Amino acid sequence: MIWFSALVLIPLAAVVVTAIDGGWDVFWSTITNGQTAAAIRLTVFTALGVTAVNVVMGPLIAWVLVRDRFWGKSVLEVMIDIPFALPTIVAGLVLLSLYGTDSPIGVDIANQRPAVFLAFLFVTLPFVVRMVQPVLEELDRDVEEAAASLGASRLTTFRRIILPSLTPAITAGAALSFARGVSEYGSLVLLSGNLPFKTEVTSVRILSSIENDNVAAAAAVATVLLAISLAVIVLLDLIQRRVAARG
Amino acid sequence: MADTLVRPTAEVPPVEERRRPPRVRKTPVTYLLRFIVTAYLFFLVAWPVSLVVTNTFDNGWESIRSLLEDPDMVVALQLSAYVAVWSVVINTLFGVGMSLLLVRYEFPGKRLLNALLDLPLSVSPIVVGLALVLVYGGRNGWFGPTLAGWGLDVIFSTPGIIMATTFVALPLMIRELVPVLEEIGIEQEQAAESLGANGLQRFWRITLPSIKWGITYGVVLTLARSLGEFGAVKVVSGNVLGQTRTATLAVEEKYLNFDQQGAYATAFLLAMVSVACIVIVGIIRPKNHP
């Protein structure tokens, strides 16, 4: 408990304290500063977009992994986990090698906005898949068969039977991938070029504040990120509670 | 009468046949989904990762060999390994402790603690680094000057890197152990207690063996995460060549200095370790979660 406080709670509290040290006005003017606001906007909107893609692709991938069986499936299974285990800086390099300047397929998005999107997409890939997969495995197929025997089309079965039971898992995965996207740093260093107003994300903004010895500004922006993380955690907790309450 | 008695048993299929999972209906949609998913993963993961491998071996083993002959690089790799091992040890010890605490005991604020434990996973590594600098920074942190007075520099030296790494990898072990502990319950331990086993014996003989796969899995995940930590380490380490530069920092440095071969080779080494970790986990997992 003490160890947890020393390592996690006190440092995080220090961030918030430093942020509000200068008063509300300073805090507000820091985060509404043009460059910072642009960075926060870019981060949040890109993370939202990526989360939207994940909400569609995640269940799809989980579906194929659980329901379909074909040669090479276990390879796909391993591939899902790669983005989670790969060091983020390596992830950036990896993406750069295919979508960077000397790309073999002629797609060069380095130092552009799609690069940020791509990096987020890569690092958040496992979250929705891994949340949905166990739920889908547990799902009772009899209910689906019953629905089908009562004349429901496959689409109806999916929409009315499968989707409702997956919704908590999808939401939880989406929340996690949003949080991860907002806080991503390592993979962007090489890939996005960190151009102010264009591809600079919030984490990079904080780092440059630290390097310029402007700790108060760094702390202010960090507090915004912390607030987002906390919101996500609270959301997750609520989802878990609802699922537990339902049975 | 006889045939009505016989018929039901005849209709029940043999056990083996019933146990087999229902056959998947192969429709065009099945193939379409399969194709979409494979293509998506191929472009997002498989192809980029394989390019790193081919880039590394452009000149055969040359780039790996020159990498391992570079003394600074060797130091960086050693530091990464050292930090990762420490972080695994710390997280294992405290992870087991925290998990037991969370599962076995009721105390005020338990739910809050439980929720806060996820924080390191969703907080930006840069924020983690900043937080540690604010508290343990040598010049004007909260505790930093005191610790520096005792001759213990945390930030810009190895302890800081270990702390940052431990921080970001903290929840992995606990999240792995809590479900296992919840599942095994406490009956066996109560039985052991009634037979006169003391606390240590009970832990050593009963709890530990039943969570050992959970621990193994947690260790592998923590190791992968620790080796790969970049953002938090970047803030706290100061990136001093040959002293506090870890392997992940070296990748960035090399790439920015146009030493692409070196960057790819280092990335390849790191990627190898993490892929090995996932494969190990994949092998362990089916036994653990049938």
From TrEMBL, chain A:
Pfam families: BPD_transp_1. It is found in: Membrane. The chain crosses the membrane at residues 43-66, 78-99, 114-132, 161-182, 215-239. SUPFAM superfamilies: MetI-like. Residues 40-236 form the ABC transmembrane type-1 domain. It comes from the Bacteria. The keyword Ion transport does not apply. It is a multi-pass membrane protein. The keyword 4Fe-4S does not apply. Keywords: Membrane, Sulfate transport, Transmembrane, Transmembrane helix, Transport. The complex is composed of two ATP-binding proteins (CysA), two transmembrane proteins (CysT and CysW) and a solute-binding protein (CysP). Part of the ABC transporter complex (TC 3.A.1.6.1) involved in sulfate/thiosulfate import. Part of the ABC transporter complex CysAWTP (TC 3.A.1.6.1) involved in sulfate/thiosulfate import. Probably responsible for the translocation of the substrate across the membrane. PANTHER family: SULFATE TRANSPORT SYSTEM PERMEASE PROTEIN, SULFATE TRANSPORT SYSTEM PERMEASE PROTEIN CYST. Belongs to the binding-protein-dependent transport system permease family. CysTW subfamily. NCBIfam families: 3a0106s02, permease_CysT. This is Sulfate transport system permease protein CysT. It comes from Nocardioides pinisoli.
UniProtKB/TrEMBL annotation, chain B:
InterPro entries: MetI-like, MetI-like_sf, Sulph_transpt2. The keyword Mitochondrion does not apply. The keyword Iron-sulfur does not apply. Gene3D superfamilies: MetI-like. Residues 77-285 form the ABC transmembrane type-1 domain. It is found in: Membrane. Its main location: membrane. It is a multi-pass membrane protein. Keywords: Membrane, Sulfate transport, Transmembrane, Transmembrane helix, Transport. The chain crosses the membrane at residues 29-53, 73-103, 115-136, 148-170, 263-284. Pfam families: BPD_transp_1. Part of the ABC transporter complex CysAWTP (TC 3.A.1.6.1) involved in sulfate/thiosulfate import. Probably responsible for the translocation of the substrate across the membrane. The complex is composed of two ATP-binding proteins (CysA), two transmembrane proteins (CysT and CysW) and a solute-binding protein (CysP). This is Sulfate ABC transporter permease subunit.
